[in-house]
TrEMBL record:
GO terms for biological process: methionine biosynthetic process. It comes from Penicillium diatomitis. One of its GO terms (molecular function) is 5-methyltetrahydropteroyltriglutamate-homocysteine S-methyltransferase activity. It comes from the Eukaryota. This is Cobalamin-independent methionine synthase MetE C-terminal/archaeal domain-containing protein. Residues 179-378 form the Cobalamin-independent methionine synthase MetE C-terminal/archaeal domain.
Length: 402
């Protein structure tokens, strides 16, 4: 990754990709799944609603426009099921999961079995992008000069590893160890990024709640008490850093990559874990080769801004100080103060001026509005008000900047 500060993207005002689906689209998706309408009819509705939400984002003054993830059921999309060597299943033994992984624990504690999952069943190989057509359609809706700003969100490369117990992520007769398994996942992501780049994509955001789980004392305690684990949680976090960095081998200099960390964003605005970034900050900010961190910071569950003192001057942070979970609007002046407070820690850590530190910063909602297609406990008007507030905060702090 180039050592210089990569900007435009990211922008001063950002959002995290997923936006509330219109009721009409949700109904058509359900009808399609029941076989009541053909797939072509669903695609027609998806295309129209993507056009509408793109127009909405542009009107609100956003540049890193997404398609709202309107073609997806969940935020991670279909990357893993689209690979050779992975299979989506609905019937499985619940004992394959780490019961202390925060999202798994939430299901089990409520008496529910986790929903569909994806299992490695053979050698992993990229055989065609399931994202690129989504990006191409999105690109067709904006002037060619603006295609480089568009954002597409990708599944975290560790997504189908952390959730499973040691030895359950892949068959031992297929991969001898994590290094072999991660190696093929990294190659698959290298291929995916090249396909997207060749289609004009220059702005990618990985969505990774898993990394934030390493901030959770409850998760860390469970991990330590699990006799099946062959290495520590810190060792596993280090392995995930290397996995990401291997995914970026050969990344073109003009392609921006970021990672979003949050503590869960499920139906009804539910979160799954808590804990500040303190214990992972040095490795996260200094060893992970991304240009930008999109960090949840809307409530005390994400801790304070102190860990930002470890953010290098060559990297950006987008502060998610505005919640996407509920409609109540934050006070704009208070949010501006919080952004400045965060920038002071960056300035202190790098021995630079506040003005210089603010140049590394942007603002956003803390997460998407519909990580699951059913969406958060907020309506369309509430979402628009939140997006407008984010843009206003950015305009006040960075006048005239996109």
């Amino acid at each position: 990754m180039a050592p210089h500060l990569h900007q435009r993207p990211p922008f001063r005002a950002e959002h995290l990709g997923s936006l509330l689906r219109p009721q009409n689209l949700l109904e058509k998706k359900t009808a399609s799944e029941k076989g009541e309408i053909p797939e072509s009819a669903l695609k027609t509705v998806e295309d129209r609603e993507v056009q509408n939400i793109v127009a909405t984002q542009l009107k609100l003054g956003y540049h890193a426009v997404s398609d709202g993830e309107y073609r997806r059921h969940m935020f991670w999309g279909t990357f893993f099921p689209g690979l050779d060597g992975f299979e989506e299943v609905t019937e499985f033994d619940v004992d394959i999961f780490r019961p202390y992984a925060p999202d798994i624990a939430a299901f089990l504690e409520s008496g529910h079995k986790p929903g569909e999952t994806v299992l490695c069943t053979g050698k992993i190989k990229h055989v065609g992008s399931t994202y690129v057509d989504q990006f191409k359609y999105l690109a067709s809706l904006v002037p060619q000069a603006d295609v480089k700003n568009l954002k597409i969100t990708l599944a975290a490369p560790n997504w189908y590893h952390l959730r499973y117990r040691e030895g359950k992520s892949y068959p031992k007769d297929v991969y001898a160890n994590d290094e072999e398994y991660f190696g093929d996942i990294a190659k698959a992501y290298q291929t995916e990024l090249k396909i997207l780049y060749d289609a004009g994509c220059r702005n990618v955001q990985y969505d990774d709640p898993n990394l934030a789980y390493f901030c959770s004392e409850k998760f860390l305690t469970g991990f330590k008490e699990d006799a099946g684990n062959v290495y520590s949680a810190d060792d596993l976090f280090q392995k995930y850093i290397k996995l990401y960095n291997d995914c970026f081998i050969g990344l073109p200099e003009d392609m921006h990559v970021g990672v979003h960390l949050c503590r869960g964003n499920f139906v009804g605005s539910r979160h799954f874990s808590e804990g500040g970034y303190d214990r992972i900050a040095i490795k996260l900010f200094q060893e992970l080769n991304v240009h930008t961190y999109y960090l949840e910071y809307d409530t005390p569950r994400a801790g304070g801004f102190e860990p930002l003192k470890y953010l290098p001057t060559r990297k950006n942070v987008i502060l998610g100080v505005v919640t996407s979970k509920f409609a109540k609007l934050e006070d704009k002046e208070e949010m501006k103060k919080r952004v400045i407070e965060a920038a002071k820690f960056i300035a202190e850590g790098n021995n630079v001026s506040l003005e210089t530190a603010l140049n590394q910063v942007g603002v956003s909602p803390q997460c998407g509005f519909a990580s699951h297609r059913e969406g958060n406990a907020i309506d369309h008007d509430g979402m628009i008000n939140k997006l407008r507030l984010v843009r206003e905060i950015a305009d006040d702090l960075w006048p005239g900047q996109p």
